[in-house]
Amino acid sequence: MPVDPEIRAKVKASLARLQEVAPGRSVEVRIPPYAAVQAVPGLTHRRGTPSAVVETDAETWLELADGSLSWEDAIRAGRVHASGERSDLSPYLPLD
User: CA 88, CA 96: separation in Å to the nearest integer?
Assistant: First the structure.
C-alpha cells in the first residue's frame, strides 16, 4: 500500500505536537508506516524494545489528535494497542 504524502505530513506534524506537549522518551508512539516517536516524561528508553508502546493506524491517530475520537473509545474498540507504564495518552489528547 503506497504511503499518502498528505497523511504522512499530518501524522508527523501531530506526533511533533505530542512531543511538545508531552516531552520525554518513556513511550514509543508508532503510526505505521508513517512515523514513530518517543514522548511522555519518565524513564528514558535507549535500546531494544521499549517498555511502553502505543501503536495505531493513521486514521485513528488523527482522530485522537483532533478530538473526534476519545482515547477511551479507541481503546475499547481495539483501535489502539497500548502497553506498559505511561502508555495512557489521554492526558495529552486531543492535541491543540
Answer: 18
State the amino acid at position 51 in one-letter form. Answer: S
Q: Which residue has the higher pLDDT, 79 or 2?
A: 79
For 62, residues 6+ apart whose C-beta sits below 8 A from its C-beta are 7, 10, 11, 14
> Within a 10 A sphere around the Cβ of 76, how many other Cβ atoms?
10
For residue 2, is pLDDT > 70? yes
Q: What is the pLDDT of residues 5-30, one digit of tens each?
A: 999 999 999 999 999 999 999 999 99
Domains of the chain, CATH where assigned: 5-87 (3.30.1050.40)
C-alpha cell of residue 42: 519518565
- DSSP H helical segments within the chain, as ranges? 5-21, 58-66, 71-76
90 CB contacts (<8 Å, ≥6 apart)? 70, 71, 72
